[in-house]
């Protein structure tokens, strides 16, 4: 995969964007991902669909319409995502919202929901990290609010920590077993039934176009509807953390995946492990870049 010269425009991020992110736990940046990089990400998904990685999952329930496909750790498996994370300047955007000069790559994934897919992405937090972390959620197709990512405004500051959710359970059930809190943090609890009580929550979402992206605090409770439109909707998410963040004891599913990847990366459960291998680069390598 050739290096592209195109760098995303970090300068266009305003102090107001950062303030909104800090206050609400999410912000929408308009027109910041260039067509060139959108093409690269789209090619990565196309190639992933043709050559599924060991982490690709078809999550459509038997007897249901549509098609719901996810893949994870894609930077590790596909050059398109590696070059995007390493060369596009996206790390600089992550760093800006972490309030730092650099950000450490954690992991990435994509989701494609085809028309007629009713399944929601369940409400969840992206936990497992001891330290600040965030998600950059990048739509590759236009999505209106009926389809696009939803965030419970301010939930990153609730001081709550919920069990991780399985994306394919008939009723998204909390995986309660084997989870422990990091020292000084409260034990994870079951996520409330937000869909049954939507009016009690301040749920925010945006109509988005390719080129836009959402920056979401990893502790913000977020989820997404099915796809009720007539076209496929694909999105790519990369997750970034403050350099030196640790794999928390409750990050057991991350540890399980790392074990599967056999990378020599941190895999111990129950310990505060650093992410200090090449799989988790601190970027940009030169903070002034
Ligand atoms: O796009 C979605 O359906 C969910 C994305 C998500 O949960 C994430 O990127 O962490």
Give the names of the bound compounds.
Answer: 2-oxoglutaric acid
Tell me the total number of β-strands.
Answer: 15
Radius of gyration: 18 Å
CATH class: Mainly Beta
CATH topology: Jelly Rolls
Run of helices and strands: HEHEEHHHEEEEEEEEEEHEE
Overall form = globular
DSSP summary: helix tally: 6
Organism: Ruegeria meonggei
Protein name: Phytanoyl-CoA dioxygenase (PhyH)
GO molecular function: 2-oxoglutarate-dependent dioxygenase activity; iron ion binding
Pfam family, one: PhyH
Q: How would you explain this protein's 3D organization?
A:
This protein is an alpha+beta fold and 289 residues long. It has one domain (17-283): Jelly Rolls, CATH 2.60.120. The chain has six helices and 15 strands. The protein has helices at residues 15-24, 35-50, 74-77, 79-87, 90-98, 252-261, and strands at 26-29, 57-58, 68-72, 103-113, 121-124, 129-130, 133-139, 150-152, 203-204, 213-217, 222-224, 233-241, 246-247, 273-274, 282-283. The strands form three sheets. Strands 1, 2, 3, 4, 7, 10, 12 and 15 form an eight-stranded antiparallel sheet that branches. Helix 2 (35-50) packs antiparallel against helix 4. The longest helix has 16 residues, at 35-50. Mean pLDDT is 88; it is low at 169-178. 2-oxoglutaric acid binds at residues 111, 121, 126, 135, 137, 149, 222, 224, 235, 237.
